[in-house]
Amino acid sequence: MAASQLRLGVNIDHVATVRNARGGPHPDPVRAAHLAIAAGAQGITAHLREDRRHIRDEDMERLRAEIAAPLNFEMAVTEEMIAIATRLRPHAACLVPEKREERTTEGGLDLAGRPEILRDAVARLADAGARVSLFVEPEERVMDAARALGAPVVELHTGTYAEAWLAGDEAGVARELDRLRRAAAHGASIGLEIHAGHGLTTQNVRPVAAIPQVVELNIGHFLMGEAIFVGLERAIADMRAAMDEARGGAPA
Ligand code: PXP
């Protein structure tokens, strides 16, 4: 698969985290979204949390109105969020756990706990025109469960991989990469589109970007932290370059 087929979705949540630390309008996450697109991101991701700790309702409204690139609306599976998303009609909706009882021990969405609620949420968001993804653990059986719920896309949780990398745990990195590769291959073989994200950095992104079935990476925290030192444009360009290198060269 060509390098150009691996998309970078930039998560701008933590621009809002910094803004909210002071209560004023600066820095504006929508401005960061414009800059991210200009710097080479293929889409913007934002997570409207139930507690509104970073992105707020008006940010979502403005992102939807002002950003022409695909908007990926990350959300918990609640009636409130489904109502907002079906009204805003984003390009994509990524269902994520927010409460302890909604997640597996590793951190992905627990698909077995309340399948009817998830199946209903997937169907309603799809009816509103959203491409729905489930943020899940990289396990083959979880791919089957996601498919059974009617989701066209899964986002593989790379958090455990990223933690192993940070800890310098080589065996853990190898084990997690193996899980990611096997889940991606199995997921794609049963018709799922494969995304990945959480905790990815320019240091650890290459082996994940090299997994051939992965077509989108969603990356936020590292890029925003790095932007403090080198600027957002450069941080995104460096990430894009690492992704393209891993995928076998710059896009044509
Ligand atoms: N993908 C999903 C589903 C997420 O919830 C997040 C943010 O936690 C990310 C990707 C991006 O993770 P990070 O900010 O660690 O890059």
Structure overview:
This protein is of the alpha/beta class and 252 residues long. The chain has a single domain, classed as Alpha-Beta Barrel (TIM Barrel). Helix content is 48%, strand content 16%. The protein has 11 helices and 8 strands. It has an 8-stranded parallel barrel with strand order 1-2-3-4-5-6-7-8, surrounded by 8 helices. The two termini are 12 Å apart. Bound molecules: pyridoxine-5'-phosphate. The site of pyridoxine-5'-phosphate has 16 residues, from strand 8 and helix 10.
Summed up, what is this model?
The protein is an alpha/beta fold and 252 residues long. Helices cover 48% and strands 16% of the residues. Helix 6 runs parallel beside helix 8 (170-189) and helix 7 packs antiparallel against helix 8 (170-189).
Which key phrases capture this entry?
252 residues; alpha/beta; TIM Barrel; 11 helices; 48% helix; 16% strand; binds pyridoxine-5'-phosphate
Describe how the helices and strands are arranged:
Layout (H helix, E strand, L loop, with lengths): L6 E5 L1 H10 L6 H10 L4 E5 L9 H10 L4 E5 L3 H10 L3 E4 L19 H13 L3 E6 L3 H9 L4 E5 L1 H8 L3 H20 L3 E5 L7 H5 L4 E6 L1 H10 L1 H15 L6
Parallel strand pairs: 1-2, 1-8, 2-3, 3-4, 4-5, 5-6, 6-7, 7-8
The structure holds pyridoxine-5'-phosphate.
Radius of gyration: 17 Å
Strands in their spatial order, largest beta sheet: 1-2-3-4-5-6-7-8
Count of runs of 4 or more consecutive helical residues: 11
Present as ligands are: pyridoxine-5'-phosphate
- Tell me the major beta sheet: 8 strands, parallel, barrel
